[in-house]
Amino acid sequence: MPLFQLTDEHRFPPCDLAEPNGLLAIGGDLSPERLVVAYRNGIFPWFSEGDPILWWCTSPRLVLFPEEFRVSRRLARELRSPPFEIRFNSDFEQVIDRCAQNRTERGEDTWITIQMKNAYCALHEQGYCHSVESWQQDRLAGGLYGLYLDRVFFGESMFSDLSGGSKFALVALVNQLQNNQCGLIDCQMTTSHLVSFGAREVTGMEFQGLLKQFIQTTSPHGKWTSYEE
Questions:
Q1: How far apart are CA 20 and CA 24, in angstroms?
Q2: How many H helices and E strands in the chain?
Q3: 51 has which bridge partners?
């Protein structure tokens, strides 16, 4: 299948034209306008430092329906007396930095380049991207971030510096999204960790149908400022 070269227009080819591994297009930029168009269509950027911008639309797709979210008995017990304070968007930049550093500290490559960080920080300033954070006193213990369009949250990355830090942030995210009548969390890549919370794979065609169902507007939600249990 052909690999599409993007132009200055904020348009993408249909996802069903992606290569079998999900690679759809190359080039363009990471402007907020282009990123919003991409995510609305189930497309996300993923590339390494020094590479051109690569755009992906993978199938199958791991998704989590908030009403199907489940926690283990152990985590449920810990939630009764949580060791962390949950905050939203109190330090988005540190969360994205720690997501990147966490991978490099494990000797893994990271797609969260300076270019990507700047792009998502710009989306955060516009009210599209959010971080959910677990704090222990003045220490950021874990967290996650992603982009929120209408009734779909597109998860990008998470990290833990203290045991359970990202799990508590995930529980807080799902609670917040349920309060906001969110219909879908896009997890992108399949991991056993997310499957244990109730995430499951859908086909690319099913995923596109869900996006059409749950995204009717691309107006930003604004910045979450408090945790609503």
A1: 9
A2: 7, 11
A3: none
Geometric angle at alpha carbon 12, from 8 and 17, rounded to 5°: 140
- The 10 Å Cβ neighbour count of residue 197 is 19
Q: Report the candidate in 229, 143, 158 with the shortest Cα–Cα distance to residue 194.
A: 158
User: Over the chain, what is the mean pLDDT?
Assistant: 93
The answer to whether the beta carbons of residues 10 and 23 sit under 8 Å apart is no
Q: How far apart are CA 197 and CA 63, in angstroms?
A: 11
Q: What share of the chain is helix, strand, coil (3-state, %, to 5)?
A: 35, 25, 40
How does residue 229 score in pLDDT terms, banded at 50, 70 and 90?
A: very low
Q: Please enumerate in sequence order all residues whose Cβ is within 8 A of that of 57, keeping only pairs 6 or more positions apart, or say none.
A: 15, 18, 22, 24, 41, 42, 43, 44, 204
Judging by DSSP bridges, how do beta strands 61-64 and 184-188 pair with one another? antiparallel
Pairwise CA distance, residues 229 & 172, whole Å = 8
Whether the per-residue pLDDT at 227 is higher than 60: the answer is no
For 121, the enclosing helix (H) or strand (E) is helix 114-125
Contact by Cβ (8 Å): 39, 147 = yes
Q: What is the pLDDT of residues 172-226, one digit of tens each?
A: 999 999 999 999 999 998 999 999 999 999 999 999 999 999 999 999 887 776 5
Query: Percent of the chain scored above 70 by pLDDT?
Result: 97
Kindly state the greatest CA–CA separation across the chain: 53
